Amino acid sequence: MFTFLYFWYAIVILLNISDFFLWLYTISRQNRHAFIRKRLHSKKYPLTNETNDLEKIRLFADDYLEADGFFMLTLIKENSSDFVATEIIHRLYTDKFLKKYFRKTTTTTIYDAIDTKHDDDSDSNTKRRRHFCSNIC
């Protein structure tokens, strides 16, 4: 009986150690990029410029998801389905990541509106810059 338990514990320990190294490989950086790229380029979602940019995929996998977010997505894939993981990754990438980090911003200066105002006191139609304090007060 003790011989059986000895071999049983030895097999369980070896399986745990091998599973640990398998998870270390799964959350490695190269595997993360390949996993995200594969899920973004599925049959349901065609290839676009946004999902084909490798630099954005790298930023998404390394900076936005990081290792713990990727670990959660891998657990979701393993425990539910690949379809659910693909949906979550695509929604995170398009709705959260791209809109938050790569939205188009316009720059305006504080004097743009002031420069285009016409001075009512002058007789000519030339534009004149007013003092900032006089516009506030």
Describe this structure in words.
The structure is a single chain. With 137 residues, the chain is mainly alpha-helical. It has one domain. 70% of the residues lie in helices and 0% in strands. Helix 4 packs antiparallel against helix 5. The longest helix is centred in the middle third of the chain and has 26 residues.
Task: Write the SSE topology.
Blueprint: H1 2-26, H2 29-40, H3 49-52, H4 54-79, H5 82-101, H6 112-115, H7 132-136
Helix pairs in contact: 2-4, 4-5
The coarse silhouette is elongated
The number of helical elements comes to 7
Poorly predicted runs:
105-112, 128-137
Number of domains: 1
C-alpha termini separation: 93 Å
* Rg value: 29 Å
Order of helices and strands, N to C? HHHHHHH
- The pLDDT mean sits at 77
Based on helices, strands and strand pairing, what is the structural class?
Answer: mainly alpha
- Give helix % range: over 70%
Taken as a percent bin, the fraction of beta residues is: under 5%
The biggest sheet, with number of strands, parallel, antiparallel or mixed sense and barrel status, is: none
The beta-strand count equals 0
Summarize, please.
With 137 residues, this protein is mostly helical.
Tag the structure with descriptive keywords.
137 residues; mainly alpha; 7 helices; 0% strand; elongated; disordered C terminus
